[in-house]
Design brief:
The chain is of the alpha+beta class. It has 2 domains: about 5-85 and about 145-185, no CATH class; about 95-140, no CATH class. The protein has helices spanning about 20-30, 50-55, 110-115, 165-175; strands at about 5-10, 30-35, 45, 55, 75-80, 90, 95-100, 105-110, 125, 135, 145-150, 150-155, 160-165, 180-185. The strands form 5 sheets. A 6-stranded antiparallel sheet has the order 2-3-5-12-1-14. The chain has a two-stranded antiparallel sheet with strand order 4-13. Strands 6-11 form a two-stranded antiparallel ribbon. Strand 9 and strand 10 (about 135) form a beta hairpin. The radius of gyration is 17 Å and the shape is globular. The protein starts with a strand and ends with a strand.
Length: about 190
């Protein structure tokens, strides 16, 4: 089951004015490598300083980052999304629970209709404890999902394996002048 770490703007409606400029900036700091055309137009190898921007948790995992290791389990590469016209759910099927941002009520996975169109008429979730109607993109999904118009995915980083370093989050904020957050995504691709 493919896993990835997703970085995205904290503001779900934000997007870079020029994604190619952002790509150049991420290359300049050594986070992003060369295009990895075998996987698609927006796929990249990791940059020479990638390991300075990701903090691995626990034991030293084996990850593969070079082109000749592509296709191996644990192959780590990146994807820079295109900019979506609308805010969308960026996660997958691994949301186990979430919290109301007002009263901290713990709830089970929201219904899929809420996730399909976070800007649409069904975008509100009603908290059974405090009674507030909350836009789904304001729910605390922990590190299991998020909403946005743009993201950077690091393929091959599973849940709890690593986190973006404070240095990476600070660089992203410096470059884009907006704050970022992250979550993990498991897909059935």
């Amino acid at each position: 089951m493919p896993e990835k770490l997703i970085l995205h703007y904290r503001d779900p409606g934000a997007s870079p004015a020029d994604p190619q400029w952002l790509e150049q900036q991420l290359r300049a700091i050594g986070f992003l490598g060369e295009r990895y055309n075998q996987a698609g137009d927006n796929q990249f190898l990791t940059g020479p300083d990638f390991l300075q921007y990701i903090s691995f948790i626990g034991c030293s995992p084996t990850i593969y980052t070079t082109l000749n290791e592509a296709g191996r389990p644990g192959f780590c590469h990146m994807e820079i999304s295109t900019v979506s016209q609308q805010t969308r759910f960026l996660g997958a099927n691994n949301i186990r629970y979430f919290y109301c941002p007002h009263c901290r009520h713990k709830a089970k996975e929201p219904t899929f209709r809420h996730m399909q169109d976070p800007d649409g008429p069904d975008n509100l979730w009603k908290c059974p404890d405090c009674g507030n109607d909350i836009p789904v993109y304001e729910l605390d999904l922990r590190e299991q999902g998020g909403f946005g118009r743009f993201y950077i995915a690091i393929w091959g980083i599973g849940e709890g394996l690593a986190i973006p370093s404070d240095k990476l989050l600070a660089e992203l904020e410096r470059i884009t002048e907006k704050s970022w957050r992250f979550f993990y995504c498991r897909t059935h691709e």
